[in-house]
Specification:
This protein is about 50% helix and about 20% strand. The protein is α+β, with helices and mostly antiparallel strands. The protein has 5 domains: about 5-100, 2-Layer Sandwich (Alpha-Beta Plaits), CATH 3.30.70.100; about 100-220, no CATH class; about 225-315, Calcium-transporting ATPase, cytoplasmic transduction domain A (Distorted Sandwich); about 325-385 and about 660-715; about 430-540, Calcium-transporting ATPase, cytoplasmic domain N, CATH 3.40.1110. The strands form 4 sheets. Strands 5, 6, 7, 8, 9, 10 and 11 form a 7-stranded antiparallel β-sheet that branches. A 7-stranded mixed β-sheet has the order 12-24-23-22-13-20-21, with helices on both faces. Helix 6 (about 145-165) runs antiparallel to helix 7 (about 170-185) and helix 11 runs antiparallel to helix 13. It starts with 5 loop residues before the first helix and ends in a 10-residue tail after the last helix.
Length: about 725
């Protein structure tokens, strides 16, 4: 989730510059990033009581407010700040995006392709139709190659100037512009054009990678059907735009159609492909009362769905928003690469001066400007993280930024919530213990089903399910009376059947002096007839399938400490921790205690991953170095607070995420080595040999192309449950 820094949260805080009667001039730093919302902000400010007119100027980051003379300027300014605070997040996002893009010029693949075509056409004309024997001095600037180079260099020059103004130091584009101008002055028009063409080719590969990632995610998740079948009150269907739907409307979806709403199935039976949302490649069956999500496709069948979430509230819309926001979260190694590459640019100018002073050869010195480290170093991280995020979404893993890949790769501790994360979140009957010799296990279960038939307690559902599984029918009985937090009872054949806790039995006068099994963490439900205890039902919230394998895989991957955090009792925490092979557990925890457990480990230098799914996990998810929301039933607040959202219910996706993170960081390190190695060799050859300017440019751009190609391998990353 994108968070504002302390300074960013003050961007929309106005500063009074002049205050004349009825007119107030305010400076607001964040306005410079909100040109698109200019009219919207002006309209909101003008609606403040007492304000007559507002004029905004994003260029100067200021606004003029005309107000009623009877109003207090301080009150007016406070009211303006209250409105402007709503736009602080938008200003921060725009600033971060601008910082990302202004270091070097970035272009679309289409524009880069046109630039390459112009370079090829100019080279063809300059070496055939307009070829001259020798071009020297100003005449060399009139060649087709020189003219095209100057035109193509314009965006780079703009970026170079912007970098000088903003950072007060030359960037990689400044270096490229300098090398092109030097080539033109030396009469090497072909070299200048080749430098640009190779640079554009490397940029084209990078742009293609990033655009492919973004488009594939959106196409994979987007709801393309702009119309749906809306069931009217008389039962007839009307095809209407999605925008006309309201919460509670009934939508009918047929075979081959994509769902456009999140909702609950009212009737019908269908097989749905929900791989775009959950990452499950096997279609699942959906029936009455099941939840369904926008972006999934009905493979066969028909469903009547009650629309519960529409538009931006749907799961798919939130996922797309998270993916777009993830580009703003830059990993520490990515920020380091950016800073490091910027500091390396002056090195090229120093080498240029040194080589020229030693050799007095301008062509040899020029090769020091053609080869630079900065472009490749920046791409080493950007392309790798972009490709990894794409691969994660394909597997049902949404990573909200490269920083969390870096943290996940180096995580030393993983903490799991129990209920709903490690376990299914619903208890199951595992055993029946008969206390009274006059009754059988079937009798105990049948009587328990009678007393729990109308109860809404989770244990009641597990008892009824267990009895149904054994083929036991519910005997005829009277009304069921529920005693809150204790149990329930009913009349059966002139007897009172009670089901509930041991305390409930004791309060009801039931003789409970019976040998009880050892306290092993299982949940006990006692069954009695009149004052006689007849049996005990044991229930357990079973661990999810593959949980133990996931824990073993994480340990094999180098995670040193794996612990269980739960709000349940000590016995239940110990039992589940033993079943999954955890290193330890902490039980009876409140939400703030889980967050404290995370902070305590971090103070000891541990990089902590927290895995949860509920509201009570949100504080711990927020404090962890990497917070992971696991499962299709994760709450909204858990998804918003966490750094990684796994929409599948398979715990093996967590070691998959670890493998993806480690692969990404390994490729980043490989990219660094490729860039530094190839460009260093190029600089040495350029200074010590007769390699041409064209050859130097080819070596430099070859390293960039290799980096992008190496990062593209992450697009083919696949989960490995073996």
């Amino acid at each position: 989730m994108f968070n504002l820094s302390k300074n960013e949260s003050l961007w929309m805080k106005s500063v009074s510059r002049s205050n004349l009667p009825g007119r107030l001039r305010l400076d607001v730093n964040g306005l410079s990033y909100l040109a698109v919302q200019k009219n919207e902000i002006a309209f909101s400010l003008a609606s403040i009581p007492g304000i007559r007119r507002v004029t905004l100027n994003p260029v100067t980051s200021s606004l003029l407010v005309w107000y009623e003379p009877l109003c207090s300027p301080k009150d007016i300014q406070d009211a303006v700040d209250l409105i402007l605070a709503r736009y602080a997040m938008d200003a921060a996002r725009k600033k971060h995006a601008t910082e990302t893009d202004t270091a070097e010029v970035t272009m679309t693949t289409g524009r880069l392709a046109r630039r390459l075509a112009l370079s090829a056409f100019s080279a063809l004309l300059g070496n055939t139709v307009f070829r001259a024997p020798v071009r020297t001095g100003l005449a060399s600037l009139a060649s087709p190659q020189a003219v095209s180079s100057a035109i193509l260099c314009a965006p780079l020059a703009q970026s170079a100037w912007s970098g000088l103004k903003t950072d007060h130091r030359p960037n990689a584009d400044f270096l490229t512009v300098t090398s092109i101008l030097a080539s033109l002055l030396l009469g090497a028009g072909n070299s200048a054009l080749t430098i640009l063409a190779l640079s554009d080719l490397a940029e084209l590969m990078t742009s293609y990678t990033i655009e492919k990632t973004r488009k594939s995610i959106i196409s994979m998740l987007s709801v393309k059907d702009s119309h749906v079948w809306h069931e009217l009150g008389d039962g007839h269907l009307s095809r209407v735009p999605v925008t006309e739907l309201e919460k509670g409307d009934i939508v009918v979806v047929h075979t081959g159609e994509k769902l456009a709403v999140d909702g609950r199935v009212l009737s019908g039976d269908a097989v749905i492909d929900q791989s775009a949302i959950t990452g499950e490649f096997v279609p699942v069956q959906k029936q009455t009362h099941d939840e369904v999500f926008a972006g999934t496709v009905v493979k066969s069948g028909l469903l009547r769905i009650e629309a519960l979430k529409l538009g931006d509230d749907t799961v798919v819309s939130r996922i797309i928003g998270m993916v777009e926001a993830s580009s703003l979260k830059r990993a520490p190694i990515q920020r380091y690469a950016d800073r490091f590459s910027n500091y390396l640019v002056p090195l090229n100018f120093l080498l240029f001066a040194a080589v020229y002073l030693v050799t007095r050869d301008p062509v040899r010195a020029l090769k020091m400007l053609v080869i630079d480290y900065s472009c490749g170093i920046k791409l080493s991280t950007a392309t790798a993280f972009s490709a990894a995020i794409h691969s994660g979404v394909r597997s049902g893993i949404l990573i909200k930024g490269g920083t969390f890949l870096e943290q996940m790769a180096g995580a030393s501790t993983v903490l799991f919530d129990k209920t709903g994360t490690i376990t299914e979140g619903r208890p199951e009957i595992t055993d029946v213990h008969v206390v009274h010799p006059s009754y059988t296990q079937q009798d105990v279960v049948a009587y328990a089903m009678a007393a729990e038939e109308t109860s809404s307690h989770p244990l009641a559902s597990s008892i009824l399910a267990y009895g149904t599984k054994l083929g036991i029918t519910v005997p005829d009985h009277g009304d069921v009376v529920t005693e809150i937090a204790r149990g329930s009872w009913t009349r059966l054949d002139q007897h009172i059947v009670r089901v509930g806790s041991l305390r409930y039995m004791q309060e009801s006068g039931v003789r409970a002096v019976v040998p009880l099994p050892q306290n092993d963490g299982r949940i006990r439900t006692y069954v009695s007839i009149d004052e006689e205890m007849i049996g005990i039902l044991f229930a357990q919230d079973r661990p999810r399938e593959n949980v133990r394998r996931a824990v073993n895989a994480l340990r094999y991957a180098g995670v040193g400490d794996i612990e269980l955090l739960t709000g349940d009792t000590e016995d239940q925490g110990r039992l589940v921790a033993q079943q999954i092979g955890a290193d330890g557990y902490q039980a009876s925890l409140l939400p703030e205690h889980k967050a404290e457990a995370v902070l305590k480990l971090q103070t000891h230098g541990e990089t902590v991953v927290m895995v949860g799914d509920g509201i009570n996990d949100a504080p711990a998810l927020a404090y962890a170095d990497v917070g992971i929301s696991l499962g299709s039933k994760s709450t909204d607040i858990a998804m918003e607070t966490s750094d990684v959202v796994i929409s599948r219910d398979d715990p093996m996706t967590i070691p998959d995420l670890r493998r993806l993170a480690e692969s990404t960081m390994r490729i980043v390190r490989q990219n660094f080595a490729l860039v530094i190695g190839i460009n260093t060799i190029g600089l040495i050859l350029g200074a010590a040999s007769n390699i041409s300017v064209l050859g130097s440019a080819a070596m430099h751009n070859f390293s960039t192309i290799l980096v992008v190609a190496n990062s593209l391998r992450l697009l083919f990353f696949s989960p490995d449950h073996g």
